[in-house]
């Protein structure tokens, strides 16, 4: 599913921890236009569970959460229309 | 304006909030707030606004720090006794947050300078110890179309209201300052230190909410607090079409300063519930 979306911005937050993973994801989403897609790379399981949930609560659409490696998660998000 | 790495960390707990975010934080950093009175209420107001990253804080106060102020005026330290309050407050604000620029106004707000001063700011917070200044802030802000918060404390109580646009103004509720002899002095009445924190913090929250367009403000309402019962009361007030300044046929058309009556707390004819939008002491 994520493969069908053009990624407009990619953010490497593998060395960040909560809450900065979400803080920086949120700041990046604010910079995008509504409907654009952000890809966030995370490096710990706590962020991998918190970030998609927080992004969802903000009203954005979490398109996918992939785990290409043991300690690497990729969250793909579409910015809300607001 | 992009937030620096340090700013992202400093303001992260704001940025996390829905309705604030980086956009809101940048808005705060670009905002200008005037704090009238660096005393009991002005202390928590300026401390929280500084910590919140309100980019420019104007402080107007003609007084020097007195030892008897320190029981509640937490922006000043013991070493500040004898210094101008604006200097002392500015130093403390700078220590809290170097993102904040302080504009020092070491004089009394009066009919000549009030309009020009309020026009330079986005929001005005009044927390002085006297009625003439409360009415002056109200009148200047109504003339300038500026939103403001007025707060007052005395003994164990305090109250506050916010005015924005066409909401009720201070004169809609309290027509004019009470007679000079009708009010107790600060030293006679006393003030419970923490009440300044309770009310000043409400005023700081109202300021930031206004700047960010968040939630509901204390417009058309007076919020009162009693530390002895720990009860908050919200009393509805209405814009008065006969108000001498914001009514349909205003009789006040220019700024005039009422006679000084410090530590006034009981405006004659005011509603029992609302009468504690008093003094900032």
Strand percentage of chain B lies at: 15-25%
Assembly state of the chains shown: heterodimer
Give the largest chain-chain interface (CB within 8 Å). Answer: A-B, 11 and 10 residues
* Rounded average pLDDT of chain A: 94
How would you describe the shape of chain A?
A: globular
> What would you report as the Rg of chain B, rounded to the nearest angstrom?
18 Å
How many structural domains can be distinguished in the coordinates of chain A?
1
The CATH topology of chain A is given as Translation Initiation Factor IF3
Number of strands of chain B: 8
The helix count of chain B comes to 10
Describe the sheet with the most strands of chain A.
Answer: 4 strands, mixed
Adjacency order of strands in the biggest sheet of chain B? 3-2-1-4-5-6-7-8
- Low-confidence runs of chain A (pLDDT<50, min 5 residues)? none
Q: What is the CATH topology assignment of chain B?
A: Rossmann fold
> What's the order of the H and E elements of chain A?
EHEHEE
Distance between the termini of chain B: 38 Å
Radius of gyration of chain A: 11 Å
Q: Going by CATH, what is the homologous superfamily of chain B?
A: NAD(P)-binding Rossmann-like Domain
Number of DSSP strand runs of chain A: 4
Regarding CATH, which class of chain A? Alpha Beta
Q: What is the CATH superfamily classification of chain A?
A: TusA-like domain
Describe the 3D structure.
The complex is a heterodimer of chains A (82) and B (281). Chain A has 82 residues and is of the alpha+beta class. Helices cover 30% and strands 33% of the residues of chain A. Chain A contains two helices and four strands. In chain A, helix 1 (20-31) crosses helix 2. The mean pLDDT of chain A is 94. Residues 263-276 of chain B have low confidence and may be disordered. Chain B starts with a helix and ends in a 45-residue tail after the last strand. Chain B has a single domain (31-236), classed as Rossmann fold (3-Layer(aba) Sandwich), CATH 3.40.50. The radius of gyration of chain B is 18 Å and the shape is globular. Chain B has an eight-stranded mixed beta sheet with strand order 3-2-1-4-5-6-7-8, sandwiched between helices. Chain B has 281 residues and is α/β, with parallel strands linked by helices. The A-B interface holds A 19-20, 22-24, 26-27, 30, 54, 57-58 and B 3, 8-9, 12, 15-16, 18, 21-23.
